[in-house]
Design brief:
alpha/beta; ornithine cyclodeaminase, domain 1; Rossmann fold; 2 domains; eight-stranded parallel beta sheet; six-stranded mixed beta sheet; 10 helices; 14 strands; 34% helix; 25% strand; globular
């Protein structure tokens, strides 16, 4: 692999905004990419409590694979929780084209997916109140993603790490909106709720979420872990990246289904339905909108290609 161009985290962050990455995802869907045909991720447990993920994809003139590690003990060691690399390949020849920082790619890709969903689901025409759960890299990315698609009147940060929550609220204020720390009960007055945590149990009472609010949950891809509760899922119009992926990995949906509260037909639509205009923008206002993301390999590929082409390497 000698001589393959490498894209590190710093240059990647400068090459593509969350909005531009969302545009790349939309272009892939409008170009005919079918998320339902995307291969499932492979996952193996690693001694010591970690998890190794393998996520391959191919579309158009490119292919690629992300090798990602999830190491829950890393923050205590002063290391990132998410590690990894992305190998981008020329599709026809499978010749390696570039090696990208996998953690930085995930940090960009996940908020971009959420931004694309919010373009179609979030209330429009007025400044919105955001309640943001989490204070890690994904929380920062999702703050910027939300600001790229809607004007925010206020940001309320809810996190276990109170110091981290204060720092994120302070950063949010530098971007324009008023911001403070808060509690899970703040979802009662939220227009947007974004969950990007490592929680395995619901973060808030779903009964509190207003009928016109939009909730985005991105923190888990495990069938037994969830950030939202059964009450919210049962009330909400639910959108996902792929029905197959959600019914395989989304604990936010699989736990309520196992409880008998919903069936597999509870999903309202997919990201491709929203982008392709097969679902009305804004969704039904009579209930909350929930977008549940598990993260998929086609998204990594679309954003990696956009980064590679923007770099001109």
């Amino acid at each position: 692999m000698t001589g393959i161009p490498q894209l590190a985290a710093g240059p990647m962050a400068a090459l593509l905004t969350p909005a531009a990455a969302a545009d790349a995802l939309a272009a892939a869907l409008l170009g005919g990419l079918d998320p339902e045909s995307c291969p499932p991720r492979s996952a193996i447990d690693v001694p010591g409590g970690g998890e190794l993920l393998l996520m391959p994809a191919a579309s158009g003139s490119y292919a690629g694979v992300k090798i990602a590690g999830v190491a829950p003990g890393n923050p205590a060691r002063g290391l990132p929780r998410i590690t990894g690399s992305y190998l981008l390949l020329d599709g026809p020849t499978l010749r390696p084209l570039a090696l990208l920082d996998g953690a930085a790619l995930t940090t960009l890709r996940t908020p971009a997916v959420s931004a694309l969903a919010l373009r179609h689901l979030a209330p429009a025409g007025r400044p919105l109140r955001l309640v943001l759960f989490g204070s890690g890299p994904q929380a920062y990315g999702h703050l910027e993603a939300a600001l790229s698609v809607r004007e925010l009147a206020e940001v309320v940060v809810v996190a276990r790490d109170l110091g981290g929550a204060e720092r994120l609220a302070a950063y949010a204020r530098t971007l324009g909106p008023a911001a403070r720390t808060g509690t899970p009960k703040d979802v009662a007055d939220a227009d947007l709720v974004i969950c990007c945590t490592t929680a395995r149990e619901p973060l808030f009472d779903g009964h509190l979420v207003g009928p016109g609010a939009t909730v985005v949950a991105v923190g888990s891809h495990e069938p037994t872990a969830r950030e939202t509760d059964t009450a919210l899922v049962r009330r909400a119009a639910v959108y996902v990246e792929s029905r197959a992926a959600a019914l395989r990995e989304a604990g936010d949906l699989l736990v309520p289904e196992a409880e008998g509260a919903i069936g597999p037909g509870h999903i309202t639509g997919t990201l491709a339905d929203l982008v392709g205009g097969r679902m009305p923008a804004g969704g039904p206002r009579s209930c909350p909108q929930l977008f549940k993301s598990v993260g998929m390999a086609w998204e990594d590929l679309a954003v990696a290609v956009a980064l590679f082409e923007a770099a001109g390497v």
